[in-house]
Amino acid sequence: MDFQNRAGGKTGGGGVASWSDANVDRRERLRQLALETIDLQKDPYFMKNHLGGYECKLCLTLHNNEGSYLAHTQGKKHQSNLARRAAKEATDQPYMPLPQQLKVEPKKFVKIGRPGYKVTKERDPSTGQQALLFQIDYPEIAEGVTPRHRFMSAYEQKVQPPDKRWQYILFAAEPYETIAFKIPSREVDKAEDKFWTLWNKDTKQFFMQFAFRFDRMSQHDEPPPPPPSAAAAMIRPSPVPPPMDGPCFSVGCYSSDAVYVPIIVCNHYYVTSKSKDTCIILDSNITGILHYTKSDNSTEQFKFNISGNADGSCEQTQYINISFNSSIGLTNSSLIIYFKRRNDSFQISNFTLTVNFEQKLNATEPRYMYLMDDHAELDVSTSIDEAYKCSEVILSFRGGSTINLHNARLIAYADFNTTEFPGNQKYDICQLDVRTSDLVPIVVGICLAALVIAVLIAYLIGRARAKRQGYASVILDDAETKIFHLDRLCESLKNHFYAGSLLNNNEKNEESLAGRMLPYRVRAVNAFLRKCRFCLLLDTVKALGSMQIDAHIGVDERDIIRFEAGHVARLADGAAVVSQGETSVLATVVGKQSSAGDTADFMPLTVDFQQSASAIGRIPTNYLRRELQRNDSDILASRMIDRSVRPLFSKHYSGETQIICKPLAIDDDGDPVILGLNATSAALTLSDIPWEGPLGAVRVALIDNEIVVNPSRKNMKSSSLDLIIAGCDYGKRILMIDMDGYKIETGKFSECIRAGLQAISHLIQAINKVKDLCGRQKRQDVNGEIDIDMIALMEEMQILCGNQLYDILTNIEHDKLSRDRAVSALGDHMFEKLKERSTPHKLRHTFKNLVKRSLRDALFKSERRCDGRKFDELRPVDIKMDLYKKLHGSALFQRGQTQVFGTVTFDAPSTAFQPDALSQLLGAQQKKMFMLHYQFPSFATTAISSSLRTSRRELGHGALAEKALKRLIPEDFPYCIRLACDVLESNGSSSMASVCAGSLALLDAGVQMEAPAAGIAMGLIIDEERSDYRILTDINGLEDFAGDMDFKVAGTMSGYTAMQLDLKVPGIKPEMVMESLEKASNGLKHLLLIMEKAQPQWRNHFKSTVPVHETIPVAIYKRHIIFRSGGYNAKLIESETGAKISVEDDTNISIFAPNKVKLEEAKMMLNKMFDSESERELVFGAMYKAEIVEVLEHGVLVTLHKGMKPILLKNSNLDARNVAHARVLGFKTGQKIIIQYLGRDPNTGHHRISRKTLQSASLPVQNMYHDI
Fold first, then answer.
1. Does domain 788-862 have CATH number 1.10.10.400?
2. CA distance 739 to 756
3. Which fold is adopted by the domain 283-420?
4. CA–CA dist 1044, 1069 (Å, integer)
5. Average pLDDT, stretch 380-392?
């Protein structure tokens, strides 16, 4: 470190730093470097050249890797140049005075305490509207200060836990402290006569009054269809139930909020499915109380009975729609009650009431939809095997309206052959009707306490015995034994309790209240014992430290995959370690709880596969000696895991989720990617995140035409197939396929799929066993609830623009841009019309779902696609070859509105992709002589983007296209090939268009491919209601957006070379995959015939612009002429001619030139260099007179003639005797001596001379004295 010549310093102002000062400065620079976030793309002086090396544009230095460049940036040269550049810019920059900024002095007050206040509750006697009046006293308010107020939501404040049922109003005035009042979270009426404030300066009192609005929301004519999700409902029992003499009574009905309403008949409603099975039955007398606004803005109360017809749906989200008319003012009205299913129970999730007021009621809105109250507590819930029974259930709506279900009997998600309740139907009695004595809970509590004590004592004894024996398995066996006895004891207790109750019932009354309460009490006992069983298992897991389950997918020891959980990463939501042999991978998952009201357009899932050098026992070779940015193989592995697990998340789940896979140990034959996939499945299954797994994944190889599941890395080198398949449902459904092969036939591929799914079933069984032992209860997905507002909003949009949207989507005159503009314009019109209806984000999300649903419905309805094609018809194809003569090979492939420009570049073999040693050891990357780079610029989709980095999508699509072509390139091809595929227009399936364009460009360049390849994308649209599906050939962008599958298939006439299956649904059957492959095969053959017409075969000879290669023999002693001084002459030749010179072997050098002319120029320059430094030929064994030019410690330097490079005569060759220094023989500079020439060294090419032979009398000396 030179302080004398540092930037900004005065010459001579300092000396060279000491060793200790230099170390201090170096350590400080390294510390600052470690604290920085390294991003070389943001370094203005960082440049990656065409050779793959790195250059510093500030210092004009070359570097082989990123670590070398980072080390250079912290060196003296780079830091000095940076300082000089900064000093020069500061000198050249003109002086610019800073603008004068106004300094705002903060107000400083000493708080004197809280003000006095008074709050008055008010109610309008005519309308019943509620209001609040606040009076705040500020007797010591500061001069010139006016009190202020604001409303604050419960989520803004940090004092109390947030509760959406409340909001806060704040009052502030200096020097008093700010005070807040907690009020209901209801909308405030901002009308002039309802909301006012007053500041009385004389009395120093601040008044504020506001009223709460009635919660009403107008709807359109049609009631909403069954929504796919649910929200919380308000169902409360009446405090005073009516007498319960039977299933329905015909005298009257009591409600705390209503007067006596006569009930005429007992109504029976039911819903049947398409197969005539009954899924919903409701027996009840239904009455209602409505609050509506009359034309004079007054509020009126209306009482009515409901009696009519029912229909509904028996799909996943079931509902019952009761249509009715009222003789006293309602027509064509309907009550819809929605149900949802959770595990083995069902409950009411939502309800709406749509009424049409007759004109005589004088309502302001003739048609009105009443929505469920948001602040409700759910109560109607029971198991699917039982029916719910209650004397009275009240459904509360916004604004105070209610629907009363009297003497209700209800069941949903049933499967009855009759429309009536079976005679042996079990009922779950609501808590309102439970009337029992105090003796029953006392007896049950004593029995349960005794049971718990007995189990605890038995467990402690068994645990102590297991510790003495030293076997962990005994603990588990003993725990399982206790659980078995616990279950037997539970059954015995329930049977005894049930028999006793029945005996008591027979003695008293068969319809007694104790009989109705029996299922409730038995269910409480079951719930308590399940908790005891879970706690016992949890303690067992802690005692063991971990759970281990082995899955056998073959007969060899290597075919055993072990799943472990419970011993590492316990703070994560889910964690698992999966091992095979000596390879182990840890997967962790953490997910945030999604909040109600979130409407995410996508699932915020992040997957990171993080390779570790420690897993193979190596240290990274970069400057910081740590893992830096992810390489391409890690990104591709992350994408593969993402594509496998994403379809199993609920469509309504929007919680941010992160999955991290980290190899812990890797052996030579390990496969961390497959283990990471299975570890991710196990971690998600064990977590509380709502995920519909598990899944399993295997790698299938085809070695010597034999199917091998999970082969070793060594065996994969001789495999003609590399198939990764992920499946679920015990191997009955396929989730993901990633395939790389060499002309694989359909039949053989089907056998590989079956073998892989069979192995997957064993993996899923093992994961489920681990889940049963230590899995967590899945959290409640709040976004899985029905958003009734969004459903109603979608139906409203369907009414307003459904027909227009259908016309746009089915008009074959539209292309991509015109259709997108038409849909966008229609969406903007809807947003403007409904802007007061909901938030902009919710409107866009709803409209997007409407477009997707409309396109799917139009496809099934018209049996045609949006551009008029049949399901198996391809888009028009246009091909142009050899667009630019300068390029080594080029092709422009157009399919529909997807256009890809493929360019082939040949270069020297030294420019091949060379991975670092760590990547090769991990098996992540290998040397590549063929590279395909896929580029997707933003203008291809009429978009604007400032990102300069290669996205994960571009890496994935490029890797897929490279797999489709790499096995068709000759292995002995003399050049390194780079195929660049630039997407110029995109309307779907651009990656498969890159395969077609790349294959044509290679043929145009003269690459002797074994066969041309093509690619096609297959789509799938499933209609669950109709239990039907449609397979689409060559999908466009809109079909990819609305479809359920994107299946990319590439291959030749002889077989498939690459595949990639991505799904949006939780798996499809293998039969559907094979059907898609058959249709894809027909499409590939059609494409290959079109490509054959455009380019029948490869070019017979390379273009004149293709680089040329020649090997020239060069003596080993002449190489220093080319490569001395850091290869100065070699770089000089390359800069002037573009020819690259490299060492071929011991006697030859290789010249790689852009063309033949440049090659000849490079050879001429080489010959001139050799001629200018040619030496006189010396005769072997001859004697020459040499002049000493320098005396060294280990010899003397002599020259044989003028202009000749000095030759070292070592001390060992000066005399026959041992000589330690030349001066003992009297040698001096300028002295002439006689030496003998012994030729050149065969290894180094240096001259060999000796004087020792002349001093030996026993050796014959040839008398050839030469005086040169």
1. yes
2. 13
3. Porin (2.40.160)
4. 13
5. 83
Domain 1108-1173 has CATH 3.30.1370.10: yes
Domains 283-420 and 545-774 share a fold: no
The CA distance from 1211 to 686, in Å, is 78
Q: Are 122 and 131 spatial neighbours (Cβ–Cβ below 8 Å)? A: yes
Nearest to 820 by CA among 1041, 1019, 1035, 993: 1041
The answer to whether 109 touches 142, Cβ cutoff 8 Å, is yes
Mean pLDDT of 1148-1177: 81
How much is the pTM? 0.59
Phi and psi, residue 143, nearest 5°: -65, 135
Residue type, 169: I
Amino acid present at 608? D
The string of DSSP letters for 422-477 reads -TT--EEE-GGG----SHHHHHHHHHHHHHHHHHHHHHHHHHHHHHHHT-HHHHHH
SS3 1237: strand
694 preceded by cis ω (within 30°)?
A: yes
Burial annotation 1173-1212 (CB, 10 A radius, 16+ → b, else e):
eeeeebeeebbbebbbeeeeeebbbbebeeeeeebbbbbe
Both tokens assigned to 446: 């004593």
In the predicted structure, residue 794 carries a pLDDT above the cut 90 = no
Residue 419 and residue 312 in contact, taking contact as beta carbons nearer than 8 Å:
no
Domain ranges of the chain: 37-74, 116-211, 283-420, 545-774, 788-862, 877-1094, 1108-1173, 1182-1256
Q: What pLDDT shows up at residue 514?
A: 39
Q: Can you give the pLDDT at residue 366?
A: 81
Cα separation, 1033 vs 464, whole angstroms: 66
Any idea of the CA torsion for 620, 624, 627, 631, to the nearest 10 degrees? -90
In this prediction, residues 474-492 reach a mean pLDDT of: 45
Beta strand spans in 1171-1223 (E): 1183-1191, 1195-1199, 1207-1210
Nearest to 643 by CA among 738, 574, 780: 738
pLDDT the model gives residue 960: 95
Residue among 166, 137, 171 nearest 153 (CA) = 166
Residue by residue, what is the 3-state secondary structure of 1104-1136?
CCCCEEEEEECCHHHHHHHHHHHHHHHHHHHHH
Per the CB < 8 A criterion, the answer to whether 722 and 741 are in contact is yes
Region 116-211: CATH code: 2.60.40
Mean pLDDT, rounded, for 1069-1097: 94
Which range, 632-636, 725-729, 1196-1200, 1226-1230, has the best average confidence (pLDDT)?
A: 725-729
Q: Which uninterrupted H or E stretch holds 183?
A: strand 179-184
Position 428, amino acid: D
Q: pLDDT higher for 1267 or 53?
A: 53
Q: What is the pLDDT of residue 512?
A: 39
Q: Which residues contact 213 (CB under 8 A, 6 or more apart)?
A: 129, 186, 187, 188, 189
In the CATH hierarchy, which fold is given to the domain comprising 877-1094? Ribosomal Protein S5; domain 2 (3.30.230)
Tokens of 848: 């997007």
Separation of alpha carbons 904 and 920, rounded Å:
27
Phi and psi, residue 839, nearest 5°: -75, 155
Cβ neighbours of residue 893 under 8 Å, at least 6 residues apart? 877, 878, 879, 899, 900, 902, 993, 996, 997, 1000
Between 1244 and 179, whose confidence is greater? 179
Domain 1182-1256 classified CATH 3.40.640.10?
A: no
**Are the CB atoms for 878 and 868 separated by under 8 Å?**
no
The one-letter code for the residue type at 101 is Q
Please name the amino acid found at residue 329.
G
The tokens of 1135 are what? Answer: 């800069």
Write down the CATH number for the domain with range 545-774.
Answer: 3.30.230.70
